[in-house]
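Risk mitigation, structural track. In case the binding assays with beta-D-galactopyranuronic acid fail to produce interpretable data, a predicted complex structure has been prepared as a fallback.
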Amino acid sequence: MLKTVTATLLATAAMATATFACEIMLKASDTHPDGYPTVEGVKAMGKMLEEKTDGRICIEMFHSAQLGEEKDTIEQTQFGVIDLNRVSFGPFNNIIPETQIPSLPYIFRSVDHMHKVMDGEIGGEILGAFSDHDLIALTSYDAGSRSFYNSQKPITSLEDLAGMKFRVMQSDLFVDMVGALGANATPMPYGEVYSGIQTGVIDGAENNWPSYESSGHFEVAGYYTLDQHLMVPEVLVMSKMTWDKLSEEDQKLVMEAAKESTAVQRKLWAEREAESEEKVRAAGNEIITDIDKTPFIEAMAPVYEKYVTDEKLKDLVARIQAVE
Ligand code: GTR
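Fallback model:
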């Protein structure tokens, strides 16, 4: 009995020391469940920070949209209520014009092309644009490519998409993208998609393998057409209010840890993509891989015309296309 009490006391004391040692606790948000590659990427960043600072700076991860849906958490991050937020570039499209560029349909030719762009000068410029909006973009993560899934029928061509209703992220660009393909878009928070499909409010949505699987959307939308219209990377942002409170040295450490976590996330991403695909196929879903993307790509021309308007954005697109 005494032994147990002593052990408990010691354990409590150890925990108290650990919490105490953590002088700067960064509150992080992610819409995805624990174990999802983005959540694990930020957790890995936390571990690195703890190691680099002897436990002085740490990250507390609130996964599974515990702090709210992406659009709301972005506002909370701008206000400094949330310190770190891992989100898609999509929900920033309406407020930061540069984020529309990696969100353009078929802008990247391959994962390799996307990595070269995002890890290089162009990616740096796009991340740099956040600082005018009370946010510091630390790094970008992988998110594969997004394709349409639905509860109604196998889609094998543009004709099949006509008149169908798809949920998109809350971004005008994606509303127009779906419109350009002849379907109807309904912007809605991620957390409402499952019931939206289940109740027939929407016919389907679009996302990558891990999101299609982890959200359970694959249970209510049995048809997945790999048209791969988007390859929008994820972005990890810090509240500028939090950033400004850090010493220059700590800012450097945070930036370094974020950049280093990218490699961890990308490795986990590749593994999870394969696992999610396996799980969805094992569930018996119909996966349409034999699809001619050319008409899809051609249909996107008006979207580029509408959104790539000023010289800065035109220049970014031209430079991305020129990256080998
Ligand atoms: C996922 C992405 C999330 C969220 C979601 C959505 O692929 O990782 O951050 O944007 O898509 O469609 O809302």
